Amino acid sequence: MGPSASTAPDARLEEINEERKAMACKKKWSELSRPQRTALAAAAALQFGLAGTAWWDLSRRPADAVRGSKAVWAFVIGINFFGPLAYLRFGRKQSAQLLEPAAPLP
């Protein structure tokens, strides 16, 4: 075994360490560009808006109008973006009023 055989694993370990450092590097708010801050703030506002709307609806909806357990849905809503959208789409039963055809106009 020559010197290249012993340096190849060392080089690979060094490469892995560099990748870990790059993944662990977190930027501070002050280090973000203005568009990055705007995008992050918009995503956070959307997330909080969706979750707030879903929790508000869940708290006011009777248990028999929810598919499954209200406690489970309350937990699921906390999952970023997916949870509130899943509840609003799949967690609510349609009310009887929505299922009845509209009266014809005179």
Point out poorly predicted stretches: none
- Multimer state: single chain
| Helix content bin | 55-70%
What overall form do the CA principal axes indicate?
elongated
- The proportion of strand residues reads under 5%
State mean pLDDT (0 to 100 scale).
83
SS elements, strand count = 0
InterPro entries: CLS_N
Domain Cardiolipin synthase N-terminal: 53-92
Subcellular location: Cell membrane
Protein name: PLD nuclease N-terminal domain-containing protein
Structure description:
With 106 residues, this protein is mostly helical. The protein has a domain at 41-94. It is 67% helix and 0% strand. The chain contains 5 helices and no strands. It has helices spanning 3-24, 34-60, 70-77, 82-91, 96-99. The longest helix is centred in the middle third of the chain and has 27 residues, at 34-60. The radius of gyration is 25 Å and the shape is elongated. The termini are far apart. The mean pLDDT is 83. Residues 53-92 form the Cardiolipin synthase N-terminal domain. It holds the Pfam family PLDc_N. The chain crosses the membrane at residues 38-56, 71-90. This is PLD nuclease N-terminal domain-containing protein.
